Amino acid sequence: MTLEERVQDKILLFDGAMGTMLQGAISPGSPPELLNLEKRDLIKGIHAQYLAAGCDIIETNTFGGNRIKLAAHDAGDLVRRVNEEGAALAREAAGDKYVAGAIGPTGKFLEPWGELSFFQARDIFAEQAAALAAGGADCIIIETMTDLQEARAALLGAREATSLPIIAQMSFASSGRTMGGTDPGTAGWILARMGAWAVGSNCGVGSEQMVQLIGHMIDVPAHLSALPNAGMPRMEGGKTVYPETPGEMAQYVEDFVDLGINLLGSCCGSSPDHTRALKGTLGDRRPVNRKPRRGLVLAGMRSHTVLEAELPVAMSELNGSLDRVDWLQLGEAMAQTGDLALWDLRGSGRELEGLIQAVDAFQLAGGSKLAVAASDPQYLEGALARYAGLALACWSGEWDENPDPFLSQARRFGAGVLLPGGAGLEQRIKRCQEAGFARGELAVLVREPVDLLYPLEV
Fold first, then answer.
1. Is residue 288 in some structural domain?
2. Which residues of the chain have a pLDDT value below 50?
3. CATH code, domain with 210
4. Taking a C-beta distance cutoff of 8 angstroms, is the pair 104, 59 a contact?
5. Is residue 289 situated within a structural domain?
6. Distances in whole angstroms, Cα of residue 376 to Cα of each of 117, 331, 379
7. What is the pLDDT of residues 21-55, one digit of tens each?
8. Contact criterion met (CB below 8 Å) for 160 and 126
């Protein structure tokens, strides 16, 4: 039975921490992922302990197995071997259970806050995901992401490199937001619309606060996953201690079940004893039947809106006459209105460069309602890649030409489509549906007497 089939009638239990189990086995300064090549029996033995404790899914020992992390230890050329072997080891141990190929962050900031581009990150994660799939993983789990943009790049890379279901998890601080200020609901909607099979959270907090975080994701149309730490770490005698006992962690199982959790496990500080306690309380429970919201969602890095009524539209035609300061001022000003910012990109490379500057300013100012009109799919790709949210795409070419490449780019990034009203609307709707869009992902722009956006379905 496939993982997708099994999760329909059973809440599946993940294993716990790998790092906790490897304490003392790793040489100082050596990445634990190299143990997939150097100490295979040790890794298989840890998998076996978690399986004996009752888990349904084991994670590969590949959390830091991306090229950037391994290159820091002069092991960048071992990416494929480390990940493929990590998946193969887990596959050998798992038997009829499932294997999740683990992907963690690169440790680098993405543009505009760092030097790593979105597409460079996408390629790095795609390389890792492909190797995990080749080694026998049943799914990919993207975890411990604190930067929404990096999570998006990892999700896109894994989607384009494999056909496996993808679990996308963010880590939130005790404030309830990521380092970049993203809240759980916003992260969940963005990752789900970009194609995540399951969304959720791991690390960062203990079970009590994890319940609260997942509670903000219950409206999201994806499976839900939660892997809390064994409490909040503290220092005792010069050592990091996670205080949440197996019994204490198990006390929150009912809360997760009531929320409609589909995938449950544990993270830092946990052990097979935590897994055993979770299994003892969870048993073979079926997931609660949630009723996620459906509809058109607009989102920025820090907030999201499920549209249920018309929305005013503020239009700006972007052209090459604008200088850098103008672009930045435009992005910041449009973020303040609360209206939908519709930017019409007409066609030069300079305009795309300027648009990216405007997108950066828009995001930094807290903007969350963005639409981009363009006729060149590459320009749309550049804008949507840079925008760490859910935007609307508006095809400014002729609809009797070929909008399919444009619509394909919109689908890649989870964007909805903004359609011009008037004659031919039903044909435009049909064209979008043929490209894979649901009616709830479409909106209509009405220009008279004022510019307004209307969700096609509420």
1. no
2. 348
3. 3.20.20.330
4. no
5. no
6. 21, 21, 5
7. 998 777 777 899 999 999 999 999 999 999 999 99
8. yes
